[in-house]
UniProtKB/TrEMBL annotation:
HAMAP family: NadA_type3. The gene is nadA. Its EC number is 2.5.1.72. It comes from Motilibacter deserti. Iminosuccinate binds at residues 80, 97, 176-178, 197, 293-295, 310. This is Quinolinate synthase. Pathway: Cofactor biosynthesis; NAD(+) biosynthesis; quinolinate from iminoaspartate: step 1/1. Its cofactor is [4Fe-4S] cluster.
Length: 412
């Protein structure tokens, strides 16, 4: 399509929100940047053909229930922990990205996997499910700003920089689960593996058995926190590769000396928390325990009492004694839900200002109703398809991770 922007992560682009008869292979999809108002030439993902129900429709929840019941076992609805309550209510299973992809793969009888999460998660589900299963993302504008910070072309350029410096052969790429299928495939092609936020240490150890240094994509914070706090490397062992600067903004000598080459990417939600937030909450709530996600910055993580994946955060709060106080540094939908689920504990959000994941929040009840009702009516919408070659190499990288000891049950 002329003038169509490339999808984030270098994935091929094509019309979004297109209606297709069931069983008809769709064109590749485009993800769309937010904030482009009514420019439909660049905002196709926000356009939902047919009738997107009004958010004010009081019958929305009933419509979702009816459509869900009509689909029965033909559909499987997955809800990421960071989704809104109005959406989570309709999820058959909730979890983090990796658990959800595994769950989707474990339901081969489900014809449709409706993924209430963001684009890279739906891609992982498509890679791990059988070819007969079709993955639907209710709003194609639900991308991930972190995943978008590492486009395939940029990463290939960086690899070329390493190759010209004679360093590519001794460098092992490790990609965080929160990356596009194209980046996962790059990692698979180049002898690397994937990691989640709970097995990043094992993935890095695996990589250091095979090379002298790691190219860690795309979250610099998870890479740095894991390398320094879990593997015992120093901050000086890490360099940040900035894809927007020639040569990554680092010298060949710096690359050669580095053990960790950290891609300059971050989560726009977890990257907001600051050391000041930690100091402030400790001053306000005596005895508070600070619990944060490893996508937070190094100074936040080192100032916290406990660091771990979303599942670690959930388990820690479940096991916490009544009366204890917690300040939690992760996405606000999840923190609010945990606070409601544990009224015997004081659970507050680490930041004083609102910090939802704006792209996760793109999936709302109107989009879920639209997607479910479309499937009931025999219209496939917003299908996420990863092309065969990309899926193959991404799966190679994912399977290397799954082969790590204990990784069959890890969460990311
Ligand atoms: S919370 Fe961060 S990593 Fe997760 S989807 Fe949102 S921007 Fe991406």
């Amino acid at each position: 399509m002329p003038g169509q922007p490339p999808a984030p992560g270098g994935a091929p682009a094509a019309p979004a929100g297109a209606e297709l008869p069931l069983g008809v292979a769709p064109s590749p999809l485009a993800l769309l940047l937010l904030g482009r108002d009514r420019d439909l030439a660049s905002e196709r993902g926000v356009d939902c053909p047919g009738d997107l129900p009004a958010a004010s429709d009081p019958a929305l929840a009933d419509r979702a229930r009816r459509a869900r019941a009509a689909l029965g076992d033909r559909a499987f609805v997955l809800g990421h922990h960071y989704q809104r309550d109005e959406v989570i209510e309709f999820a058959d299973v909730t979890g983090d990205s990796f658990k959800l992809a595994q769950q989707a793969a474990a339901r081969p009888e489900a014809e449709y996997v409706v993924f209430c999460g963001v684009h890279f998660m739906a891609e992982s589900a498509d890679i791990l499910t059988s070819p007969s299963q079709q993955v639907v993302l209710p709003d194609l504008a639900a991308g991930c700003s972190m995943a978008d910070m590492a486009a395939l072309g940029q990463v290939e350029d960086a690899w070329e920089v390493l190759a010209e410096a004679g360093l590519a052969d001794s460098t092992v790429p490790v990609a965080y689960m929160n990356s596009s299928a194209a980046i996962k495939a790059f990692t698979g092609r180049n002898g690397g593996t994937i990691c989640t936020s709970s097995n990043a240490d094992r993935s890095l150890r695996w990589a250091f058995e095979r090379g002298e240094r790691v190219l860690f994509l795309p979250d610099q914070h998870l890479g740095r926190n894991t390398a320094v706090l879990q593997l015992g490397l120093s901050l000086e062992d890490c360099v940040v590769y900035n894809p927007h600067k020639p040569g990554g903004g680092v010298t060949v000598e710096q690359l050669r000396a580095a053990k960790m080459i950290l891609w300059r990417g971050h989560c726009s939600v977890h990257g907001r928390f600051s050391k000041d937030n930690v100091d402030d909450v400790r001053a306000r709530i005596p005895g508070v325990n600070v619990l944060v996600h490893p996508e937070c910055r190094f100074d936040v993580v080192t100032a916290a009492d406990s660091v771990g994946s979303t599942e670690h955060i959930i388990r820690t709060l479940e096991a916490a004694p009544a009366g204890s106080s917690w300040a939690v540094g992760t996405e606000l939908n999840l923190v609010s839900r945990l606070a409601k689920a544990h009224p015997d504990k004081q659970i507050v959000f680490l930041d004083k200002t609102v910090c939802y994941c704006s792209t996760m929040n793109r999936i709302d009840l109107p989009h879920l109703v639209w997607a479910l009702e479309s499937l009931v009516e025999g219209r496939m919408v917003n299908r996420i398809v990863v092309d065969g070659d990309t899926a193959h190499w991404a799966k190679v990288a994912l399977e290397r991770m799954l082969a790590l000891p204990g990784s069959g049950t890890t969460r990311g």
